[in-house]
Design goal:
- The complex is a heterodimer of chains A (about 270) and B (about 300).
- With about 270 residues, chain A is an alpha/beta fold.
- Helix content of chain A is about 35%, strand content about 25%.
- In chain A, the strands form two sheets. Chain A has a six-stranded mixed beta sheet, sandwiched between helices.
- In chain A, helix 4 (about 125-135) crosses helix 6.
- The radius of gyration of chain A is 19 Å and the shape is globular.
- Chain B is built from eleven helices and no strands.
- In chain B, helix 2 runs parallel beside helix 5 (about 150-175), helix 2 packs antiparallel against helix 8 and helix 6 packs antiparallel against helix 7 (about 190-200).
- Helices cover about 70% and strands about 0% of the residues of chain B.
- The chains are: A alpha/beta (about 270), B mainly alpha (about 300).
Chain lengths: ~270, ~300
C-alpha cells in the first residue's frame, strides 16, 4: 500500500486534478478538475465526443487497455495518484468496479459469473451467501434464484446488465463506474436498474455516464456537464472539457453556463 | 419490343449456360482426385484388413508369402505424433497467446507472425534434414541417433505454425467486452487469459490443434531422416531412443519392394493412415460446428 501523501477533504473519494487524456496525438479531453463525493451518484452528461466515457474509463485505468491512450495530470483515489508508476492497475480495478455499456456476462453460469470476481479476489467466505446477497442488491435474485446454474446468456438484456452489476458488487468495490448502463435496454429494464442504483447508493459511490438527461435527473446527486470545442492551438478537431459541475438540481434548473442551458433544453447534442 | 420471357437462344443466355456448366465441370474435376484416391485405397487396402494386421510385426522382405502386420508402425505413428503434440501444443498455444493478447502489434510481433508464415511454408523434408543435423548426426540425445524422439521433434516443427496461427486467430475472435468484463472485476491479465479468453477460444484452438496433428501424422519425409524405420514391437520406454517405425515410412519402404506380400501390406497401411487422418479431420469439423452452436447461445 502506498502511503497517503496528498490531502483531500474527507468526503471526497475521488478527485481529478488537471487531467488531460489523449489517444496518440489526438487530445480527447483537456484540463479536467473534478471532485467526486463519497456516497453520491454523480452523472456525467454531454454530447457525443466530449470525452465523458474517456474520463470515466480513466478512473479505474481501463484506458490502459486502449493502445496509445495517455493521461496527464493526477487522479487521486484514497490519497493516492492511481497513475503513479508504483500503482498496480489490477488493485485499482478491484476497488473501483465497472459496468459497461453492453451487458457482458461471462460465458458461464449465473452463479459463476458472480463467484468469478470474488474468487480471484481471494474471497473465502460463504460463496452461496455472497451470490445471493449480490443478486439481491442488484434486484435480480427473485428472477433467477431457481436457475443459478443456467448460462448468463440465457437472461434478457436488462437482466444481464443487472447480473453485471451484481458481479461488480460481489467484489465489494468502493466505487462503481457505469458507462451508459441502460443504453442497450428498454425503459422497464432501465427503471429497474435505476431502482437498483438508488439501493446501491447506501453502500457505494456511483459515477455514471448517460446520454439520457432524464436519467441523470432521476438518479444523480451531482452532475458534470462535458462539452467539446475547437481550441485555437488544436489541429481543428474538437477537444472535450468539463463545462460545468454542480448539484443536479442546479445544473438542470439554474445552470451558470449558457452551453449547459442549451444542452439541457435540447438545443444541441 | 422484346418479350419479357426467358429466351434460350439469346447469345447472352447461351454464354451464361456455357460458363455455368464449365465451372461445374472444373469443380467436379477438382474433387475427382480425392474421390478416386479414397476409393482406390479403400478397395486396394480395405481387402487386406485382417485382425492380425494390427497385432503382428512386419516380416522383412523375402520370398515368404506372409508379410505380417503393421503393429509397430501403428504404435510408432501414435507415439511420434504424441511427442510432436507435447512439444508443439504448449509452445504454439503460448506463442499464440503472446501474439493475440500481449503483443501490441510492434516490430517484434510482426516479425513473429511473418516467421510463423514462413515456417508454415517450409517443405517438410527441410524439417527432417534440420533435426537430422541437429539431433541425429550429433547424437545429442544420450548418444542415440535415429529415434522416435527425433521424429517427434521434426513433426512438431510442422505442427507449430498451425497451432500458433489458430490460437492467435481464435483469441482475436473473442470480443474485447469479455476481456474488459474480467479486468473490470479486478482480474489480472493472466487470470483473464486463463479463465476467460482461452476457454472462450478453446474449441477453435482445439480444431487447429487437431488439424495440425492430422497433418503431422501423415508426413513421411521428415521421419526418413529422423525416426527411420523399425520392424520390431515397441515394448519399453527405452525404445523411444531407437529407430521407430511409422505408417508413412512403412508405406514408403514396402510399396517399393518387389514382393507382392509387402506391397499388399503397404496398401493396408495406406488404408489405415487415410482412414485415421480422414476421421481426425471429420472430428475437427464436428468440433468447429460445435463451436458455432455454443457461440449463438
Amino acid at each position: 500500500m502506498i502511503k497517503n501523501n496528498k490531502k483531500t477533504p474527507k468526503n471526497i473519494i475521488l478527485s481529478l486534478e488537471n487531467v488531460s487524456i489523449s489517444y496518440g496525438t489526438f487530445e480527447a479531453v483537456r484540463n479536467v478538475f473534478c471532485n467526486f463525493k463519497k456516497g453520491n451518484i454523480t452523472s456525467l452528461i454531454g454530447p457525443s465526443g466530449c470525452g465523458k466515457s474517456t474520463v470515466l474509463r480513466s478512473l479505474n485505468r481501463m484506458n490502459d487497455l486502449i493502445p496509445n491512450c495517455s493521461l496527464k495530470g493526477t487522479v487521486l483515489f484514497d490519497g493516492t495518484n492511481i497513475y503513479d508508476k508504483r500503482v498496480d492497475p489490477v488493485e485499482v480495478r478491484r476497488r473501483i468496479g465497472m459496468v459497461f455499456q453492453q451487458p457482458n456476462p461471462f460465458p458461464k453460469s449465473i452463479y459463476e459469473n458472480i463467484a468469478f470476481g470474488a474468487r480471484i479476489n481471494g474471497f473465502t467466505g460463504d460463496m452461496d451467501e455472497l451470490v445471493e446477497s449480490s443478486l439481491r442488491k442488484a434486484a435480480l435474485w427473485d428472477e433467477c434464484k431457481d436457475k443459478l446454474n443456467d448460462s448468463g446468456y440465457s437472461l434478457s438484456g436488462g437482466q444481464q446488465q443487472r447480473l453485471c452489476i451484481a458481479r461488480t458488487i460481489a467484489i465489494e468495490p468502493e466505487i462503481i463506474l457505469m458507462d451508459e448502463p441502460c443504453s442497450a435496454l428498454d425503459p422497464i429494464s432501465t427503471l429497474k436498474i435505476e431502482e437498483t442504483m438508488h439501493e446501491l447508493k447506501k453502500n457505494y459511490t456511483i459515477i455514471i455516464v448517460t446520454h439520457n438527461m432524464q436519467q441523470a435527473l432521476r438518479v444523480s446527486d451531482m452532475t458534470a456537464f462535458f462539452n467539446a470545442i475547437e481550441y485555437e492551438d488544436g489541429d481543428g478537431g474538437k477537444v472535450g472539457y468539463l463545462a460545468e459541475f454542480d448539484s443536479t438540481n442546479k445544473i438542470f434548473n439554474s445552470p451558470k453556463e449558457k452551453t449547459t442551458q442549451e444542452y439541457i433544453s435540447g438545443k444541441f447534442g | 419490343m422484346n418479350s419479357l420471357y426467358y429466351q434460350k437462344r439469346l447469345s447472352r443466355n447461351i454464354g451464361d449456360k456455357f460458363f455455368t456448366s464449365l465451372s461445374v465441370i472444373c469443380a467436379l474435376i477438382a474433387i475427382l482426385p480425392l474421390i478416386f484416391l479414397v476409393t482406390y485405397i479403400l478397395i486396394k487396402g480395405g481387402s487386406q484388413i485382417t485382425p492380425e494386421l494390427f497385432t503382428l510385426e512386419p516380416n522383412p522382405p523375402g520370398d515368404d508369402l506372409d508379410a505380417g502386420g503393421i503393429n509397430p508402425a501403428l504404435i510408432g505413428t501414435l507415439i511420434i505424433t504424441t511427442i510432436a503434440s507435447i512439444i508443439a501444443i504448449p509452445v504454439g498455444v503460448g506463442g499464440g497467446i503472446y501474439l493475440a493478447e500481449y503483443s501490441k502489434g510492434g516490430a517484434f510481433s510482426r516479425f513473429i507472425r511473418f516467421g510463423v508464415n514462413v515456417l508454415a511454408a517450409v517443405p517438410s523434408i527441410i524439417a527432417g534434414v534440420f533435426i537430422y543435423a541437429l539431433i541425429v548426426s550429433t547424437k545429442i540425445l544420450f548418444g542415440s541417433m535415429y529415434s522416435g524422439l527425433a521424429g517427434g521433434m521434426a513433426l512438431s516443427i510442422l505442427m507449430l505454425p498451425t497451432v500458433i496461427k489458430t490460437t492467435d486467430e481464435g483469441l482475436k475472435l473473442v470480443p474485447n467486452e469479455l476481456r474488459y468484463a474480467s479486468l473490470g472485476v479486478g482480474a489480472s491479465m493472466y487470470t483473464t487469459i486463463l479463465k476467460v479468453t482461452l476457454p472462450s477460444a478453446f474449441r477453435s484452438t482445439a480444431t487447429g490443434i487437431v488439424l495440425g496433428i492430422a497433418r503431422a501424422a501423415g508426413e513421411t519425409a521428415p521421419l526418413i531422416f529422423t525416426a527411420l524405420f523399425s520392424y520390431y514391437y515397441i515394448t519399453s520406454f527405452g525404445d523411444l531412443f531407437y529407430e521407430m517405425g511409422s505408417l508413412a515410412v512403412l508405406i514408403y519402404n514396402f510399396a517399393l519392394e518387389p514382393y507382392d506380400a509387402q506391397n499388399k501390406l503397404a496398401w493396408a497401411a495406406s488404408f489405415i493412415l487415410v482412414l485415421s487422418i480422414l476421421s481426425v479431420n471429420i472430428f475437427s469439423r464436428i468440433l468447429a460446428a460445435f463451436t458455432e452452436k455454443t457461440k449463438r447461445v
